[in-house]
Structures are given as C-alpha cells and as structure tokens.
Amino acid sequence: MSILEVKNLKYKYDKYDDSSKYAIDDISFNIDEKDFVAIIGESGSGKSTLISHLNGLYKADSGEIYFKDKNIYSKDFDLTNLRFKCGVVFQYPEYQLFSETVIDDVAFGALKKGLSKDEAYDKSYEVLKLLGIEHLKDETPFNLSGGEKRKVAFAGVFVMNPDILIFDEPDAGLDPTSKVKFYNLIKSLNEKFGTTIIYITHNLDDVIEYANKVIVLKKGKVIKIGAPCDVLTDLKVMNDASLDMPYAAQIYHELTSKGYNIDKRKLKFNEIVESLTRLK
Ligand SMILES: Nc1ncnc2c1ncn2[C@@H]1O[C@H](COP(=O)(O)OP(=O)(O)O)[C@@H](O)[C@H]1O
Ligand SMILES: [Mg+2]
Description:
39% of the residues lie in helices and 21% in strands. The strands form 2 sheets. It has a 6-stranded mixed β-sheet, sandwiched between helices. It has a 4-stranded antiparallel β-sheet with strand order 2-1-4-5, with helices on one face. It has 11 helices and 10 strands. The chain is α/β, with parallel strands linked by helices. The structure holds adenosine-5'-diphosphate and magnesium ion (MG). Residues 47-48, 91, 168 line the site of magnesium ion.
C-alpha cells in the first residue's frame, strides 16, 4: 500500500521573480509502506527541498502530497500529527537541537505528542540506549561532536514512533564504523517494524546494499525511479544525472562486456563476491 504519494509538486524559493527556476519542478512518485528509498542527484538538484515538503514544513506552490491517502494540503488535515508520523532528520542537526540537556531535547517531541513526563523520559532514555549514547543524556547538545548531535537529532525524531523516517545525507561525516551501525539500525527498523525509510545520499554503493527503491533527481525533476540494480546500472540515467556508477555496477558492466554472465539483480557485496567465485 502506498504510504506517501507526491503528485505534480512544484516549488520555487523566489516567488516574486517570474524568471527564477523551480527548485522542485513537477515531481511525482509513490512510496509504499516498508520501502527503503534513496534519493540521489547532484548538488542543487532539489533533494533537500523535496524532503522538506514531505512532513509539511514547506508548502508546495502547486501539486499535492497524500499521506495514507489523505491530502496534506486539505483544510481538515492535521499537519502537527504529520510531523509525528513523518519524522525528518535534517542535514544540519544543530538546527534541530535547542534544549539544555540531551535527554530534555529527545523528550521534547514525546511530551508534545502527549506522553506523560515519566513515559516521555523513560522512552527517551531507551532510545538513547538504542543509539548507544545514553552516557550523553545530561550533556548540553551544543557541546557534542557532529556525529553525536546527529544521533541526538535522530533520537528526538525516533522517540515519536514515526511511520516514515527521513534523513538528509545521514552518512556525511560519519566514520565507517558508525556508518555501518547507523545503516544496520535503520535497516532493522525497516525490517522489524516496517518503518518506511527515505534518505538522501551520495554514496551509491550503499544504495545497492540497503535500498529497494531509488529516485534520481536532476534540476528539480525526477528522471528515474526504480530498483537500485536497474537504475544504477543504467548508463544513460547515470550520465544524465552526472553521477558516477557505484563499484558493483561498474563490475557488472565490465564483466558482462567481457562475456561473463552476471545477474544484474544480485549486486550487493556478498552477491557479487558469490558471482565472482563462480567465474572461470
Ligand atoms: N533557502 C534557499 N533559498 C533560495 N534558493 C535555495 C534555497 N535552498 C536551496 N535553494 C536552491 O534550490 C535548488 C535546490 O536546492 P537543494 O534542494 O538544496 O538541492 P540538493 O539538496 O539536491 O543539493 C538549488 O538551485 C538551490 O540553490
Ligand atoms: Mg541537500
């Protein structure tokens, strides 16, 4: 079932300049429950602007967004509730942190959602533990490292039990171990609880590893949507989008051009290794 439907969305920053370009230029797509979606495209292609629409933070100039079949722009739609259901962790988490201690910051959303103080703080502590940062609970968010701030911002969104979790470049600036931990965590949320994941990234090798759907943006338009193994091996799409192919896709092309039979649907690291060990 579709959880989010975007229809003919358009948005420009400078509304009063007729010659200015649309940052989002007639975008349509569907996201199903349990999807793990990567949004890719070169800088300035509209990725961040797009996700700022998905929880109602930005209002489109035209077009519609349906969350569970309800138009979020209709008068009787509860936008506050959408913010709980559709949690966004922005690229610069410092803008999302404002309380004096980490635990206060995380509990803020839970309290706003209506949990009692005890429940909100218990749940916040559980989430901090899940992210391995419970020792930071009494710290001031502003004194933390970039990676830690990002985890706190994530905790503040996660504590609200959202149906959709959205991240803007979550892996930027994370060390390799933290990156793998982060992806495994959101993968397990996706698998165990069916949480829909939408994230922006430049790391296309990881898209093959984790995502089941990828949306390619170029100059505010969607130029392709599909399974990562189809989209990321498509020379024309990758060229059009000015993106470099991930290694798995390069290996696939290199070997098929040499006459080897490689299954395009099996490009994850383990699968490629498996295919390679079978080659003679
Ligand atoms: N706050 C802003 N004011 C004016 N223009 C903006 C603003 N934010 C982004 N833009 C413009 O909108 C377009 C899309 O930007 P953005 O959504 O940030 O792309 P991406 O996240 O893919 O790098 C770019 O041309 C960018 O310059
Ligand atoms: Mg961006």
